[in-house]
Amino acid sequence: MGMVSIGPLAIPHAVFAGLLAFLAFTVLASIAARRVDKKFDGWSTIALIAGLVAARLVYVALNWATFSSDPMRAFMFWQGGFEWLPGVIAAAVSALFVFRAWRMRGLALAILGVSTVVWLAAGAMLNDTAKSVPLPDVILVDAKGAPVELRQYASGPVVINLWATWCAPCRRELPAMAKQAAQNPGLPFLFINQAEDPAAVQAFLQQQSLSLDHVLSDARSEVALALGTVGIPITLFFYDGALVDMHAGEISPEALSKKTMALLER
Asked: What pTM was computed for the model?
């Protein structure tokens, strides 16, 4: 759930949808270059660069309040964070500069349109965060070794983060997770560690000066097995025991804040 597995690779659904759109765009542009005009080869590269840069810049500008303290994070594109509409517009504008004939411009815009439809359709089809997915009925262990029934959080909102100390993306997102949890004391953030020794986990958190209220141990990765998730980190948003949203892979502070606020506003 939330990932597409290809051999040993686990690709987040949003990224996979983007890859399908990229494939459609490059194939269509290549066909146009062979059969219509060789300029489509050069234009496809220009359009991709212009689209990605514009989409990222607009996203950073709209979220500058969080990027201002660490501007270099603007280059951490793997966290996600692109405004797709400005990106499509920038790619479309590039066609006006590369092609002089309106027929060529129209074909370029058609290629962009088809690729965008592929992206949106694939994203919709891969979206499996249906409300029918329940909070797993498993028993975990807290930092003191006491058992904790996960279903006790089946009333109201709860955020679950599946993580491990050896996972670099998990380590990068934990400070933002801790900050968001501290800002919302009435919203439980459950940090469910995957198959690691609890003592080692606590030592890691102390070393990193991270204060987390709900650190639970899942020795057999029962939560991931119950939900069918692949890879970590995974962040899941439940309301009244039903999954309402999720994020596979490293989550940015902006996306975490947006999804948290949406959960609290339900």
From this structure: 0.78
pLDDT for the residue numbered 128: 54
DSSP helix/strand/coil, 54: helix
Give the tens place of pLDDT for each residue, 206-241.
Answer: 999 998 989 999 999 999 988 888 788 999 999 999
Identify the DSSP state of 234.
Answer: E
12: its two tokens: 């987040």
Specify which residues 103 forms β-bridges with. none
The Cα–Cα gap between 181 and 264 comes to 12
9 pLDDT exceeds 70? no
CA angle 260, 176, 82 (to 5 degrees): 70
CA distance 166 to 133: 28
- Which of 210, 154, 170, 187 is closest to 259 using CA atoms? 187
Please give the structure tokens belonging to residue 135: 């909070």
